[in-house]
Specification:
10 strands; 192 residues; three-stranded antiparallel sheet; alpha+beta; 2 helices; four-stranded antiparallel sheet; 2 domains; Methylamine Dehydrogenase, Chain H
């Protein structure tokens, strides 16, 4: 947004300013539980602001009103303390975050129907190649819990637990089969 800039603090505060009225912030929000380490704006959606914090969360904000920042979504990207955040210049909804675990997390914001519905009308269609994004594609609603774990992650955890149970049972069955063979062999030897 023209004439605006945003700063963040060690305490997680985020302040938005208009350069024409620098005396006081246009908006102020407590964005993160610890330091807000990065604030960026989408190159494709002028009303979308994203932040990263040392609390491990990436947050998506709507600043379309000009007088407030409204949190639309948050996700713990499981990279520890976050230090960097960047939008993909070629695809409107892709965001990458880097943190203390030394890896990068990719978040396709279009996976969230709530995010897409909030910003779809504001997307600058000249800022990307149409073939890189299909706005008519069916999107899956993504439920994020208070802990920042998505429903998909819970389902993945459930599948992992189920797989572990199956693997454990298979090992037990295999061991039982071996034990049974040993007992048979032992009984056979006793008879001889």
């Amino acid at each position: 947004m023209e004439h605006n800039f945003v700063v963040s603090t060690e305490t997680g505060q985020i302040f938005g300013y208009d350069t024409r009225k620098i005396e006081k912030p246009v908006f102020s929000v407590h964005g993160h539980e610890s330091a807000c380490s990065q604030v960026i704006f989408s190159p494709h959606i002028p009303t979308m602001m994203c932040t990263a914090g040392t609390d491990g969360y990436v947050k998506v904000w709507d600043i379309s009103s000009g007088s407030e920042a409204v949190e639309i979504a948050a996700r713990d990207v499981k990279q520890g303390e976050l230090f960097s955040l960047q939008f993909c210049r070629d695809i409107p909804w892709v965001l990458a975050a880097g943190g203390s675990q030394g890896q990068m997390a990719i978040w396709d914001l279009s996976e969230s129907k709530r995010i897409e519905d909030q910003f779809k009308a504001f997307i600058n269609k000249d800022s990307y190649k149409a073939e890189d994004y299909d706005p008519n594609a069916i999107r899956v609603e993504e439920a994020t819990t208070a802990e920042g774990v998505t429903q998909d992650e819970y389902e993945d955890d459930d599948e992992s637990e189920e797989e572990a149970k199956i693997e454990k049972k298979e090992k037990k069955d295999k061991k039982d089969k071996k034990d049974k063979k040993k007992k048979k062999k032992s009984k056979k030897e006793d008879k001889e």
